[in-house]
Amino acid sequence: MQKDETMSDWRTIPMAGIHNFRDYGGYTLVGGGRLKRGVLWRSGQHAGATDDDLEKVAGVGLASVFDLRTSRERELYPCRRPDGFGAEVVHSADPDRPKFAPHIEAARGFATARDAKFIRDMMTDTYSRIGFRPELLAMTRGHAEALTRSEGPSLINCMAGKDRTGMAVAAIQFAVGVHRDDVMADYLLTNTAGDSEARIRAGMETVRGVNEGINDEAARAIMGVEPEYLDAAFAAILAQHGSIDAWLADMLGLDGAARERLRAAIAES
Q: Domains in the chain, please, with CATH?
């Protein structure tokens, strides 16, 4: 695992109103080469973007955006875009349930929850199903196809940029040969990337909007990520498909040939 690359300052673009905006490329690949930089982007929602943030987004030169949020989330928190923004924006279909981000569902579905351990247990349980959500799989497939076409930098985002986005990014990284340790390290960067306290404060306002009695420790737990969350997703995938490779092929259409095409598009020697 390449900790120097994972933790280096180039990965995150600091912004005031868009949290967790970072490059998930640059990692060494099994078999040689590494992911390109400046092509693979992930973030939280852009509803609170400042004008300065929008200038930074414009500077990335996005060709496509895959917004994993539900229509209700997009209605409540419409994203701001730079002037003249020309990227293709793809919106997720709505799931039967849940209607909100996993961390918001954890807060609102258990209105009496006050304990951080209980929240972490609920998030772990949520992750045991996240790898099989049809709308998330469809969007991840679309993101992979856009990257394979080499049309330009692509962003995938959700509300906080940590759960749905984290699962989609892990799938892309696994598909092209990023080591599992680096997949996990990139996932956990949510806890430290950029101004983590500002991200937590912004998220806690939303969390307390659906559960005003939740205490600070539990609210902070909701806004973070833990290794056991992603491990729970991997364990469920292995239980149902036998391997990550089989899941990628069966659920995302990323068989060996498709993965080679994707790797050729987003990797470099």
A: 19-264 (3.90.190.10)
